[in-house]
Amino acid sequence: MSVNAISEYKAEHRDRVENFHGMQVLFVYWPHHLMFCSPFALMVSPDMTFGDFLEQVLKPAVASHPDGAKADFLNAEWQLNGDAFTPEASATMTESGIDHKSMLTVTTPGLDGLSGAGF
Amino acid sequence: MAVKYKKLNLKDKYQYLTRDMGWEPTYQSKKDIFPEEDFEGIKITDWSQWEDPFRLTMDSYWKYQAEKEKKLYAIFDAFAQNNGHQNISDARYVNALKLFLTGISPLEYAAFQGYAKVGRQFSGAGARTACQMQAIDELRHSQTQQHAMSHYNKHFNGLHDPSHMHDRVWFLSVPKSFFDDARSAGPFEFLTAISFSFEYVLTNLVFVPFMSGAAYNGDMATVTFGFSAQSDEARHMTLGLEVIKFILEQHEDNVPIVQRWIDKWFWRGFRLLSLVSMMMDYMLPNKVMSWAEAWEVYYEQSGGALFKDLERYGIRPPKYQDVANEAKNHISHQLWSTFYQYSQATNFHTWIPEQEEMDWMSEKYPDTFDKYYRPRYEYLAKEHAAGRRFYNNTLPQLCQVCQVPVLFTEVGDPTMLSHRQTVYEGERYHFCSDACCEIFGHEPEKYIQAWMPVHQIYQGNCGGSDLETVVSNYYHINIGEDNLEYVGSPDHKRWLDLKGLKPLDSKSESDQDAV
Q1: I need a surface site. Which of A59, B267, B365, B435 has the fewest CB within 10 A?
Q2: A with B: how many residue pairs have Cβ under 8 Å apart?
């Protein structure tokens, strides 16, 4: 253990996937859309397809932004946990390699938010 | 023959009532009596080198504090009897008190518990005495703050359940986790974190915004609390300075340990203060100074001088202070934008700043406000006017260490979030910065068990699966009263009524744009 303690100290990961009742946490960051102050923290089923995720989860999340309706997310530039990622609409989260507490970053060149301020 | 009783001089009295209350144990080992003194790796060779930061004996302490209390509570009574709440600049100001009562007053109580605990852990009687008095001071601050603000609870919303909210509401895990981290550390780290970093280095960045904010905005109750706490704070500051010098002078092995604590607690304090930055720039109708100005004076200048002094011990300024210094032109705006969009889940209101306020910010933030932040408010104001007052309908990613949403941006590029991530024992963790990531890396066991509000909601531990149920049933935030937009809120309507004012336009008369 790296923490200094007065005795042997073992801690539990409080946010293990088992604690989410069959669901998993997924973070999504859309750069230059700071109207949304942080990456989204979403909860999805590991069996949800990527295409369903875009239609049912991401699009509603970004609906307030003018770029939201214009964005072609499926064909945008994606990263999964910092590495280049090519989504497949019919693949599930698990099949896509998107595990619990993964972070997706989606960049939509040409759609860079409002006011030249990345908002 | 008559017996003469001599009155003790101050020096002897202090010796008898502090040092001479201790003794060398004869049939128990010191290590059993003080079991937490060694595990942090701090070496104390000679406790007699401890120079008391203040030399109050308990009887003097009680006397001075009691006198202050008599005056203080008389003023609270007068304030309440004369409806002092009517003299504030504007009801928007009360939202600063809602943030203070739920975010800071519970920390005073936590500090009381913290000092009571560590005060038992030091084998040096001088340190024990100082901690014991500070524990009582902090309990006093918790009480007097609650009394100062209780009158406002009769006339404004959001102030009714601060302790309950502190332990559950999403943004209040920022202050709560700060003190939980300090209190679950050892006694020397606790003193470095709280007495030195918080009560000495960063103290003016809490005190000045709130107390001067109160003075500039007609809040006599809070101003009076502030004056009443000043002599306590002076003692706390001297304890902070003494503690750091003592530890550093005792053994050279202590230097790298203390340096790491200084780095960690500067950063955690800085992140905690981001809530104060937003209060200072956005919640005070009459401005004291900008956050950028406050940071420049109270940290860059004062802190600069302090760390220059500490150089002789082998201490350097806190790591990542450059990041904090650069961030002074951004964080208040970034925090306000965040709370604006999550106001459905707060015990206080938010609003778009007025024209004059935005012009003030253009002046105070010449390099950042008009370019990055004014456009946001102009856009959001238009949306509000069109009946689409913006609320973010998702939950935010939180930093695993400071628990603030990952809303901070990269140095040099305020359009990119400074997100970092790591894997520990197969689990993914996310952070707002290199600094928080580094704090995690040094003691992961502390942070992997953090009670993260967003994850707890998703785990179903917060009384409901939809945010509105969580907000009302678990957070005890009254929907449509405590939360949402200020304009059109019950607080706003009550204030207009009180002042005999009519709302400026029909928009204010309608319901606040619901979520």
Answers
A1: A59
A2: 150
Residue type, B156: F
A42/B contact by beta carbon, under 8 A: yes
Distance (Å, rounded) from C-alpha B209 to C-alpha B277?
Answer: 8
pLDDT digits (tens, 9 = 90+) for B73-92: 999 999 999 999 999 999 99
pLDDT (0 to 100) of residue B126: 93
3-state secondary structure of B81: helix
The structural domains of chain B, with segments of one domain joined by +, span 52-509
Query: Nearest Cα to B144, choosing from B117, B108, B170, B116?
Result: B108
Closest residue by Cα to residue B354 from B385, B378, B319: B378
Render pLDDT for B391-447 as a digit per residue (tens, 0 to 9).
Answer: 999 999 999 999 999 999 999 999 999 999 999 999 999 999 999 999 999 999 999
DSSP-derived letter for residue B424 is: E
C-alpha A10: how far from chain center? 30
Instruction: State the best of B271, B365, B417 to mutate against chain A, taking most chain A CBs within 10 Å.
Output: B417
User: pTM for the complete prediction?
Assistant: 0.96
Residues of B with CB below 8 A from A113's CB? Answer: 415
- Does B394 contact A at CB distance below 8 Å? yes
| Contact (CB, 8 A) for B465 and B473 | no
Q: In chain A, whose CA is at the least distance from the CA of B515?
A: A64
The minimum CA-CA distance between A108 and chain B, rounded to whole Å, is 14
Q: Enter the DSSP assignment of A88.
A: -
Dist. CA A5–CA A8, nearest whole Å: 7
- The contacts of residue B465 (CB under 8 Å, 6+ apart) are none
Q: Which site among A38, A80, A108 would you substitute to test the B interface, given the most B Cβ atoms closer than 10 Å to its Cβ? A: A38
Q: Which of residues 60-99 of A touch B (CB under 8 A)?
A: 60-61, 64, 81-82, 99
Is the ipTM above a cut-off of 0.85?
yes
Inter-chain CB proximity B405 and A38 less than 8 Å: yes
Domain spans in chain A, listed from the N-terminal domain onward? 22-107
Supply the pLDDT for residue B96: 98
Beta bridge partners of A104: A28, A80
Tokens describing residue B499? 């002042």
Q: Which CATH class is domain A22-107?
A: alpha beta
pLDDT in tens, B104-163: 999 999 999 999 999 999 999 999 999 999 999 999 999 999 999 999 999 999 999 999
Domain B52-509 classified CATH 3.30.450.40?
Answer: no
Chain B contact set for A38 (CB, 8 A): 338, 396-398, 405-407, 417
Which chain A residues in 18-37 lie under 8 Å from chain B, judged by CB atoms? 19-21, 23, 25, 27, 29, 31-32, 34-37
Report residue B54's pLDDT band, with 50, 70 and 90 as the boundaries.
confident
